[in-house]
Write a structure and sequence with these properties.
By secondary structure, the chain is mainly α. 66% of the residues lie in helices and 0% in strands.
Amino acid sequence: MLGKWLRSKMPSQASLRNNKLLGLFGERLLEPDYWHHNRHSSAIAMAAGLFAVWLPLPLHSFIAIGLALALRGYLPLAIAVVWLSNPLTIAPMMYGAYQLGVRMLGLPVRDFTNLLEHDFWGIAPPLLTGAFTLAVISALAGWLLTRLYWRCKIIRAWQARRR
């Protein structure tokens, strides 16, 4: 079901080829292997997308695309997962990453009543530490849960065939 929905939302190869920003990835982006999902490519895509979600950098989609291409993941799923980070969720996510980084580094928590008073370099170490930690944990959990989901799906299909 998810595969059908993603296929209906995919851009054409001509529009991908003509997109200047996606030209960074070259013709490799158009290889059919990246546009068909299986157990391995879906798990890799989930991990790539969840890793990119937590990075406090712009252009999450390009990071997810690069990771999915490097690891041979399913591109539409990697890009779809990146949209978990959106204007409504990015602030709580980064605040949670900051709080985790503060606890991991043993630093005092700063009061954020006025964000303009704080310089970025003062909050960067705990923010980046927490974000990278959550990125790795999310990527591993997403990879594992996708593999387990796929395995359960296969087992149910086998059981249905036996009946």
